[in-house]
């Protein structure tokens, strides 16, 4: 995003990625212990997705690959959220929608490399918000 002129619009994405890395590290130590075997497969797929990014060094290709990695990495979260919706915070996914809308408004240049990631994140996080709201309504309070 930065290379293609996103300007200050790239800062929230950078901060978000730093938080994601921190959450990943903390989750390894303190996270949900019921790891499904396919979670390992999705992790490997996400890591393999980095190879074309390193090879191409093209910002637009990088964004598409990043979106694919994000989508793949959402699958275990979707599965966990479906079965255990009370372990996730709806507000977090809703806030991510708002954040990415604000990112779109803060961009200094609009092109595939600067906008596509936020559009995809708006769609994924809206889907997660709806899933959690529906599942929490379906399941009785514990």
What is the string of helix and strand elements? HHHHHH
Question: Quick check: average pLDDT?
Answer: 85
**Helix/strand class:** mainly alpha
**Major sheet characteristics:** none
Q: For the CA atoms, what is the radius of gyration? A: 16 Å
Number of domains: 1
Helix segment tally: 6
Helix content: over 70%
Secondary-structure map:
Layout: H1 11-30, H2 37-48, H3 50-56, H4 59-83, H5 90-106, H6 112-138
Helix pairs in contact: 2-4, 3-4, 4-6, 5-6
Short structural summary:
With 142 residues, the protein is an all-alpha fold.
Question: Could you characterize what this model shows?
Answer:
It is a single chain. This protein has 142 residues and is mainly α. It has one domain. It has six helices and no strands. Helix 4 runs parallel beside helix 6. The longest helix is centred in the C-terminal third of the chain and has 27 residues. The protein is globular. The model has no long low-confidence stretch (mean pLDDT 85).
